[in-house]
Amino acid sequence: MANWNMLTLVGEDRPGIVARVTEALYRAGWNLGEASMMRLGGNFTIMLMVSGEATRSDLEEVVQPVAQSLGLQLHVDSIEGGLHRHMVPNIQVRVSGADRAGIVAKVTGALASTGFNILELESDVAGSAQQPVYIMCIQGYAETTVEALEEAVGSIGEEGVQVSVSPIETLIG
Amino acid sequence: MALLEILTVPDPRLKDASVAVERFDQELRSFIADLEETRQAGPGAVGIAAPQVGRFQRIAIVDVSKTRKPVANHGHLVLVNPEITHWDGFELGREGCLSVPHYTGNVIRAERIRLRAQDAQGEVREFEMEGFEARAVQHEVDHLDGLLFIDRVVSRRTDLFQRKVYQKGGGGKG
């Protein structure tokens, strides 16, 4: 039975990072699972599920030289879990407003109080350096209704932050 | 009535284009009944196309009348030889597929379409559709052309406003 590890790599973005890392993993016989890779603030970030018969320290030995030569920080955790465990989001929450401390904590705190489970969160700062605007898009799963979620985040809207809750109807065809 | 077997990826037959239906007979209607039974047996499927069960003819069923939140719809539709004649607008929405288990992704579809199709008796009908129903029809017509939603899936970060036109077989930047 193969073991899953979560490989985390972070460092200054440049072309070829994904190719170099995955080539080293392939040559050493590791398999790749789900992944999230994205450029954030000029850094390239990788979170990658890797499975194989060898140990976590074997995995570190394979990736460390590549990470070093690319100037990336490496972190490896053994994880419980596996593939085919997706949850399909049924709610989308969009937040935008003047960039102020605590927006994320307030919105996600209100959502958490209803039992809302965040499956994906993307946020960015738009606007200009003088007038930054915070934009966040959350997809998640709720047992409760859109109306109950709207009520939970309702008071935040009054503080100059716009929060909208909408259902996601996934089309199966 | 019989449940039909659903082809799933990576079955190469899902990439085959289907041919027009010419005979509107009892055999066709009996197949459509089986196709409907197969759709209803699937997990909440709002549509199904004949090639998904290995019959490569231009036949699909769409029914979005039973969504959690009601959406504009024309009820239960049997679409034979469907043709989308107009596309308008575009929007991002999440899709899955009976033929692609354990995966959902975001796809850009036209917001409004005009559709011409025959029914199970061969009568020509025309529809104007929007939103979820228009999305379902586009998903099923893609099956008839050998296209899956995974051929069109995009990142949620994709900027809709860079895309000026809805293109068949799209996937590249507009």
Write down the overall geometry of chain B: globular
Oligomer: heterodimer
Largest beta-sheet details of chain A: 4 strands, antiparallel
SS-derived structural category of chain B: alpha+beta
Explain the overall architecture.
The complex is a heterodimer of chains A (173) and B (174). The longest helix of chain A is centred in the middle third of the chain and has 15 residues, at 56-70. The model of chain A has no long low-confidence stretch (mean pLDDT 93). In chain A, strand 2 (31-40) and strand 3 form a beta hairpin. Chain A has 173 residues and is α+β, with helices and mostly antiparallel strands. In chain A, helix 1 packs antiparallel against helix 2 (56-70). Chain A folds into 2 domains: 3-79, 2-Layer Sandwich (Alpha-Beta Plaits), CATH 3.30.70.260; 91-167, Alpha-Beta Plaits. A 4-stranded antiparallel beta sheet of chain A has the order 2-3-1-4, with helices on one face. A 4-stranded antiparallel beta sheet of chain A has the order 6-7-5-8. Chain A is built from 4 helices and 9 strands; from the N terminus they run E-H-E-E-H-E-E-H-E-E-H-E-E. Chain A has helices spanning 17-27, 56-70, 103-112, 146-157; strands spanning 3-12, 31-40, 43-52, 72-79, 91-98, 117-127, 132-141, 161-167, 171-172. In chain B, a hairpin with a 2-residue loop joins strand 4 (91-97) and strand 5 (100-109). The longest helix of chain B has 16 residues, at 26-41. Chain B has a single domain, classed as Peptide deformylase (Peptide Deformylase), CATH 3.90.45. Chain B is globular and about 45 Å long. Chain B starts with 25 loop residues before the first helix and ends in a 20-residue tail after the last strand. Chain B has 174 residues and is an alpha+beta fold. The interface between A and B is medium-sized, with 15 and 30 residues. Strand 9 (171-172) of chain A pairs parallel with strand 4 (91-97) of chain B, so a sheet runs across the interface.
